[in-house]
Amino acid sequence: MNIIDELSWRGLINQQSDEEGLRKLVDEKDISLYCGMDPTGDSMHIGHLLPFMTLKRFGDAGHHPYIVIGGATGSIGDPSGKKAERPMQTMDQVNHNVEALSNQAEKIFKDFTMVNNYDWTEPIGILDFLRDYGKLFNVNTMLNKEIISSRLEAGISFTEFTYQILQSLDFLTLFRQHDIQLQVGGGDQWGNLTAGLDLIHKAEGQEAKVYALTIPLLLKADGTKFGKTAGGAVWLDAEKTSPYEFYQFWFNQDDKDVINLLKKFTFLTQDEIAALAEKVKTAPEERVAQRTLAEEVTKFVHGEEALKTAEKITDVLFSGEIQALTTDEVAQAFHGVPSEEISSDEINLVDLLIAANVDKSKRQAREDIQNGAIRINGERLTDTTIMIDPKDSFDGKYIVIRRGKKKYFLAKIK
User: Fold this and answer.
1) Residue 256 bears catalytic tag
2) Binding residue positions for L-tyrosine
3) Which of 15, 20, 396, 402 is placed for a possible disulfide with 391 were both Cys, Cβ 3.0 to 4.6 Å?
4) pLDDT profile of the chain (414 residues), mean per 10
5) Residues of the binding site for ATP
6) Which of 107, 131, 228, 256 is catalytic?
């Protein structure tokens, strides 16, 4: 199957500059292509995954994917999708984020070539920039692009206005140095991508074979934007979003969304996904499609061992056998639950519930204990006089408290 047909089936194509030309090109030869990423933070989130997973699909088909880390563009600020100016980062922040993102991307996308646009942008002087590149951009054309026109009422600085030129310069440089012929980006990047095509055609001639392809904004079946949780973004950094939390995010997807997500975020075949779609129809309560989605994406981002840990934590929390967890697994499993620091001294169970903010009063704590609603590290305790030694569990670092069937609390030992 042609890679363009593959992307189309998965719903990964929003806009193309020349579908027929690109389809012919990828049939004729293995091409080089790229997607850029600005260092606005020190970790990618799942919103970054689709463009780069799309590049990987090209790579699996024999093509040559590049990632451009925006050490230069990230110091300017992309106006796309923003109603106001981005806060300007210091160069120290930009460099820190560049290093963190580069390390993360190299770990996940092992077969990609990675470059930093700071390397070819920094040596260009202001006069050379204006004479060699600025002269090739028509202000009226720039103003008519959505990324600029949407900001005119609120106002846009000259700094962010020039972002489009810098991103276009990336495409021109990569075309010249690495014969890169395709740029992939999110749907909000169409104006920037086509500006790059225009620059190459002006600088290299209309016969230059270069193309742009964007990926659609991913929406859930209810029309809301995909990828956010009550706690914010779902990060690829295990310190920000643990592999267990990451796994659970995918496992908890709605039946209406799961097949669409399997197409976009996994490398399963059409037949495999069709079989899972049938499972959703005939046995939705088994959540086979959701489990497969969680397994595939967690393994891709975090690796096999992290997946095994996430599955173990899931099984342990379902069974209630908390003691089967290691100390590190406890930290993962209860990363987002209410927590309080307590002393390492031995403490009465009632006082522990107050100290951990499980109950607001001793009377309520006693009632919960006597009613069998309290479990400490998985064990149900009904004696209000019992003493708890924090040093006895999880290397003396944590006490896991459960009230009722699902409400967890974590006492962190000072």
Assistant:
1) no
2) 34, 163, 167
3) 396
4) 93 95 95 95 93 96 96 87 78 94 94 95 95 92 84 84 94 97 93 94 96 92 74 88 94 96 97 97 96 98 96 90 92 90 94 95 95 94 94 92 92 93
5) 228
6) 228
